[in-house]
Model the fold of this input.
Amino acid sequence: MRFARKLITLLFLLLALAVLVSFALPLKDGKPLLAWNDIKLSSLPKLPLWAGGAPREAPAQVTVYRWRDQQGVWQYGSSPPPDGRPYESRTIDTAANAELFPAVPPAEKPSGNRPATAEPAQPAPASPYSAEGVQKLFDDARSLRDQSRERQAVQDKL
Done:
């Protein structure tokens, strides 16, 4: 592990040295291979926002389409459904923070007249990361250690 880390560090240093040498070491014509003047920032690709790039301008208005698929599930898209289904469209202002479509009402809860289920709900299993789970892990490890020592003692007697 230590060797791999040193090797990677050495490779990065060699790469940095190669880049610096290409800017500093003159070739036969007296000019270096690379010059800072040759690098144009406008020609570099724009980074996405998650990679530290500047936010891009969003269009002022966007049209969003909504329709139900064959299973009755709402689908949303930037274009109407291709199969000619009925749909709703809304044009929204991206600078405004408004609700696009009204909220769908929640499903009805079952009434209290239904009989209770035959089986009671099972408690969730204890997390191995809870205090009890960690304690059990240590207890199991101690038990295995003791068992291993007993077996070693039996082997030593043979």
Remarks:
- The beta strands are 61-68, 74-77, 88-93.
- The longest strand covers residues 61-68.
- The chain has a mean pLDDT of 76.
